[in-house]
Amino acid sequence: MSEHPQVPTPGRAAPPPPPAQPAPGRGRGIRTLVILALAVILVIAGTIALAVARSEPPTGSVAPTQPVAAPAPVAAAPESLQDSVDTILSEADQYRIGLALADVSGGAERTFGDADAFTAASTAKILTAAAYYHLVEEGEAALDEPMGDYDAAFQLKAMVNDSNNDSWQLLMDAVGYPQLIAYAASIGVTYDPEKNLLTAADMALILKKLYAGELLNADNTAQLLSYMQDTNNEDLIPAGSRAGIDVHHKYGELSGELHDAALLSYRGSTFALVIYTENRDGVADDGQAEVIRDLTRAVEDALFPAGVAGR
Questions:
Q1: Nearest 10 degrees: CA dihedral of 61, 62, 68, 69?
Q2: β-pairing, 95-103 with 109-113?
Q3: Which of 59, 98, 166, 211 is least surrounded, with the fewest CB atoms within 10 Å of its CB?
Q4: Fold of domain 80-303
Q5: Residue in 289, 265, 287 with CA at minimum distance from that of residue 275
Q6: pTM
Q7: pLDDT tens for residues 211-260?
């Protein structure tokens, strides 16, 4: 703050001097100079205040600032995907193929090819795992309870990550077939473990609900998803997926059935992609694996354009 010199007050014995009479026109000039001087002072003071304000850390309530915009979620698959998928399916018409695509955020769901049920093979192990974890969360089972030669936690990982069938049978027995049927129905899926039939759309729904946290608590969801990476078969959807896209999946193979059911994630967008294939000759072959990889690439090209998803 600027200081001004104090003007002494005239004493009692000294009569105040008579006011000076300004020369004609001089008063107006003085007033103009004073106004200009005040304006200059105000500008300088404002500049100093602004500089101080900028140099000090903010205190008290401040107006919220706009957050840095996060990358926009990838839009739902464009209609052009239909043409790409149809071309691949027509070139592989020796197989029965069903594909389902679901946005885990609750958005678009699309199916391609055969919408009927397939023998789900080992992809259904995700449903069994979710059912057992659900019992744990309800206090009706435990991860450390003995199961076979090990405990339930070991069998869950072996069933999903290594696709161990003995572990699967132990866990289905622990859940109980009627309870497994009821659990599937509770999440919107019709499933009989004796028949092990699912549509690609059924499996996509299971994955979608799992990833969205609608089936299990956060810890159990994360643990189950961790078993769906670096599995004993990475030659299907993971092999067709581009670098930079996170893949969790469970494959299945039985007689002429070859499937993969995956979650593809990038920049806050996650899609369930399920590809079921059946060789009518009754034996899975390399052509089915190649079709799964081709379809994966077609889907990713539509969902995650190369200029966006590449690293």
A1: 80
A2: antiparallel
A3: 59
A4: Beta-lactamase (3.40.710)
A5: 289
A6: 0.75
A7: 999 999 999 999 999 999 999 999 999 999 999 999 999 999 999 999 99
